[in-house]
Amino acid sequence: MSFMDLFRQGDAITQVVAILLLAMSVSSWVVILWKAWMLHRATGDVARSTAAFWQSATIDEARQKIGAFDREALVLPLIAATDAHAPGSLAAAGDKSQQLTRVLRDALHRVLDKLQFGQVLLATVGSTAPFVGLLGTVWGIYHALTGIANAGQITIDRVSGPVGEALIMTAAGLAVAIPAVLGYNIFGRLIGRIEADLEGFARDLRELLAHPATGA
Predict the structure, then answer these.
(1) What does 81-98 look like in DSSP terms, one character per residue?
(2) What is the dihedral of CA 73, 78, 80, 86, to 10 degrees?
(3) N or C: at which end does the chain have fewer Cβ atoms within 10 angstroms?
(4) How many Å apart are CA 30 and CA 91, to the nearest integer?
(5) Using one digit for the tens of pLDDT, what is the confidence trace for 53-71?
(6) How far apart are CA 80 and CA 100, in angstroms?
(7) pLDDT tens-digit map of 110-148
(8) What is the Cα–Cα distance from 216 to 209, expressed in whole angstroms?
(9) DSSP assignment letter at 156
(10) CA of 149: how far to CAs of 8, 11, 14, 138, 144, in Å?
């Protein structure tokens, strides 16, 4: 008995649970494949972009060099955020160090939001898919036992088949949840490393621009 056989033979609730598990699986795998590709590029791009920045003679030269490396736009937004604001505005209030801290913090949050995109979906699928599968199992067992009771004869072969079919839902729920959990944990570690690199670059950039006499 395969998952598709169970789907065809199940009632409306069983089919809804099966469709929900399928949707959760497809969505999580789309996110897993996309984030694996994106984070692989981002890891190398951030290292190359920051290296190119510190090897440049001026900020403008650094922008041009980084444009060729920063394909996911993770470093350039931090540099762009340091552009001077119009005099007289609240954004220009305070000393230079305070202004840079504020704009770099906001830019860093936006960049990290991009890196974190999809993590909530993976966490949700990983934590709920087993219970969705369990719901299908419980309902399938109830439905199978009801049918057996109505038949008026209960034997091992009559019980084992329908119950085994219902347990497929539990296996399906675990099959959906496990890749999502693994992806969430692996990507979380990669994001943490990139976040640490970006935070370090933002801190160094603030120090550089807050003391123009010693900067580029």
Answers:
(1) TTSPPPTTSGGG-S-HHH
(2) 150
(3) N
(4) 40
(5) 999 888 888 888 898 888 8
(6) 11
(7) 999 999 999 999 999 999 999 998 888 888 777 777 766
(8) 8
(9) H
(10) 22, 17, 20, 16, 9
